[in-house]
């Protein structure tokens, strides 16, 4: 059973049983435009990884980082550039990478998470009755697990929660793989890795069949081109990833060392400005059993809060497997140039955003 985190989202030891509450009515919110644009941007910007430029610097590091926070603080304050060789010291390498790299470590994201924790769902006889402030307890007085309502989940996702898993790609006649590096073991706090096939073959020897590996990683940062954004909108920080040149294996990661979060937005119909949100955290395992349990939980959550057996989901999080039947922007389609122009323009009209049609034509 994975750790299905609901309220205590930053506590890796908080194990939650599957919640069986039935909400008698959906909870809908009219969102601020910027919030929805920000989340839509996260859902579709993964396509830019296809345009990463491979390059090799010296293998002698100019800088060494020991934590996710130190790395991203240096990115946010613009202390790093693409000419520098960087060492990530004792970072876990995993399959999952943050959907919005670096966002978790910004001041705005911290404020969003604090705001989200105000929206703990309150129930009476399994019926949703309102919100209460999170006070540090993981259960209600009747010993049932606490749960963040969709508004609270939204705050956590705007605060940097959410991860994706990508398939390999052929870029400039080279096969490229996408992984994540994280000092804490938490996927959404970490750094996206770009790995060429020769290095990947060495990494996968240790990673295959395991939860992750602890390693020293040598490489440099790459900036994903701003001009290839499908939506003309300023993100909090530029899209950075880490181009791996070499690594040194230390040890196999334990199951309890690694935590990944997956996030969705959903509605009971195709109203684009009436979205609800959820995320679920789990310990990734080699057979994806914990992922499947997390997906089941998300499905159950969406059905309970949309008051419908059929939900419409904006974007998913896995290019390897499809987990939901109705998705506006499937990650697999985005990464393979099959994004629906009609659907994207529909979102553009509702949210009053400009679509970069030049990028659509090049996809």
SSE blueprint and pairings:
Elements: H1 33-44, E1 63-65, H2 68-76, E2 86-94, E3 97-98, H3 107-116, E4 120-124, E5 127-132, H4 150-158, E6 163-164, E7 169-171, E8 174-182, E9 191-196, H5 197-207, E10 213-223, E11 240-252, E12 260-267, E13 276-282, H6 289-306, E14 312-315, E15 327-329, H7 331-335, H8 341-351, H9 357-362
Parallel strand pairs: 1-2, 9-11, 14-15
Antiparallel strand pairs: 2-8, 2-10, 3-6, 4-5, 7-8, 8-9, 10-11, 12-13, 12-14
Helix pairs in contact: 3-4
Give the structure's gist in a few sentences.
The chain is α+β, with helices and mostly antiparallel strands and 363 residues long. It contains 9 helices and 15 strands.
What structural category do the secondary elements indicate? alpha+beta
Order of helices and strands: HEHEEHEEHEEEEHEEEEHEEHHH
Strand order of the largest sheet: 2-8-9-11-10
Number of helices in the DSSP assignment:
9
Shape: globular
Gyration radius from CA atoms, angstroms: 20 Å
Helix content: 25-40%
């Amino acid at each position: 059973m994975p750790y299905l985190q609901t309220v205590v989202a930053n506590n890796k030891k908080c194990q939650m049983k599957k919640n069986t509450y039935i909400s008698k009515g959906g909870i809908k919110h009219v969102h601020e435009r910027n919030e929805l644009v920000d989340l839509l941007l996260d859902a579709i910007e993964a396509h830019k990884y296809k345009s990463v430029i491979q390059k090799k610097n010296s293998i002698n590091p100019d800088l060494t980082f020991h934590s996710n926070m130190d790395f991203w603080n240096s990115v946010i304050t613009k202390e790093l550039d693409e000419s520098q060789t960087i060492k990530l010291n004792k970072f876990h390498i995993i399959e999952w990478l943050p959907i919005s790299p670096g966002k978790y470590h910004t001041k705005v994201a911290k404020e969003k998470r604090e705001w989200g924790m105000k929206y703990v769902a309150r129930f009476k006889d399994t019926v949703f009755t309102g919100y209460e402030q999170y006070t540090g307890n993981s259960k209600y007085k009747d010993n049932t697990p606490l749960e963040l309502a969709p508004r609270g989940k939204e705050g956590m996702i705007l605060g940097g929660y959410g991860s994706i898993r990508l398939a390999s790609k052929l870029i400039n006649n080279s096969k490229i793989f996408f992984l994540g590096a994280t000092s804490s073991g938490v996927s959404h706090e970490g750094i996206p890795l770009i790995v060429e096939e020769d290095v990947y073959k060495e990494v996968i020897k240790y990673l295959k069949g395991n939860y992750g590996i602890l390693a020293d990683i040598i490489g440099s940062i790459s900036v994903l081109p701003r001009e290839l954004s499908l939506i003309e909108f300023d993100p909090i920080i530029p899209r950075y990833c880490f181009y791996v040149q070499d690594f040194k294996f230390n040890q196999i990661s334990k199951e309890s060392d690694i935590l990944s979060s997956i996030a969705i937005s959903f509605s009971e119909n195709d109203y684009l400005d009436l979205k609800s949100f959820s995320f679920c955290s789990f310990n990734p395992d080699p057979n994806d059993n914990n992922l499947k349990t997390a997906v089941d939980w998300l499905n159950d959550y969406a059905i309970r809060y949309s008051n419908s057996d059929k939900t419409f989901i904006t974007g998913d999080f896995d290019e390897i497997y499809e987990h939901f039947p109705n998705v506006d922007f499937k990650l697999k389609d985005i990464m393979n140039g099959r994004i629906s122009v009609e659907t994207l323009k529909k979102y553009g009209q509702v949210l009053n955003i400009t679509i970069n049609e030049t990028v659509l034509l090049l996809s």
